[in-house]
Amino acid sequence: MQIEIRGLEKLSFRERQVVALKETGVSSETIAKRLGLSPATVATLYNRAKTKGYQVVLVISGDPLGVMAAEDEDEEEI
Fold first, then answer.
1. SS3 for 43-72, per residue?
2. What is the pLDDT of residues 22-77, one digit of tens each?
3. What is the dihedral of CA 10, 15, 17, 18, to 10 degrees?
């Protein structure tokens, strides 16, 4: 599975760092430690980035969730 963040060009370098980590499940506290920021600054950067309208797209290869086989079976019944 890959993550693609669209609209990164609208964000500052710091906002990109925070968004990339946050959208991959890293906690605000861990991001703050890793980037040498306060948790409040991480929250500010993340909230500011959200107002700029980026989008997160998950690119999933194969069927790791096991949901595509049922769709194939439905199509065969038609």
1. HHHHHHHHHCCCEEEEECCCCCCCCHHHHH
2. 988 999 999 999 999 999 999 999 999 999 999 989 888 888 778 776 655 556 65
3. -130
Tokens 């060009």 found at:
9
What pTM was estimated for this model as a whole? 0.73
Q: Which residue has the tokens 């890959």?
A: 2
d(CA 24, CA 72): 30
Check: CB of residue 4 under 8 Å from CB of residue 55.
no
- At 53, which amino acid appears? G
CA dihedral sign of residues 51, 33, 17, 24 = negative
Q: Distance between CA atoms of 18 and 44, rounded to whole angstroms?
A: 10
Q: Which residue has the tokens 């906690």?
A: 27
Residues listed for the chain = 78
